[in-house]
Amino acid sequence: ILLWGESGLTALQAGGPPRNGNRWEVTSLTPGLLVWAGVVVIFLLSANKKFCYSGKGETTKIHYNYMFSSYKKILVKNWNTEYTCNIVKKLNNFIFSKGSRMTYSTLDEEDFMAAMDCALAGV
After folding, report:
1. Residues 86-99: b if buried by 16+ CB within 10 A, e if exposed
2. SS3 for 105?
3. 35 pLDDT above the threshold of 90
4. Is 51 left (phi over 0), alpha (psi -120 to 50) or beta?
5. Residue 98 CA to chain centroid, in angstroms?
6. Ramachandran region of residue 65, left (φ > 0), alpha (ψ -120 to 50) or beta?
7. Residue 101: half-sphere exposure toward Cβ, Cα within 13 Å
8. What is the pLDDT of residues 63-88, one digit of tens each?
9. Which positions ≥6 away from 90 have C-beta within 8 Å?
10. Cβ partners under 8 Å of residue 75, min gap 6
């Protein structure tokens, strides 16, 4: 949402000003961006109401700054492993390929419906 706005969750694009992802010329994930997104999700799912400058959650006492730096070190160290490269490639394709969200959702729906038809038929 930060990069492409709410319409970035679907293949539908509306008019308006350039999205942050275009403005900042973001074309692929970096270890920092990936870890930042993960830490933000953890924060949003926590009981903390605001993100403090100290990097520590007021309610949960989660050390977000430590979490970010620790996870980033691990990801940077493993960034060129085959496993990590495969995951990042899939994420990049989904996030940065135009129309990819529509393609994946349509295929997933068709696969699901075919599996349901087989299950209902007792195949």
Report:
1. eebeeeeeebeeee
2. helix
3. yes
4. beta
5. 16
6. alpha
7. 11
8. 999 999 999 999 999 999 998 999 99
9. none
10. 31, 34, 35, 84
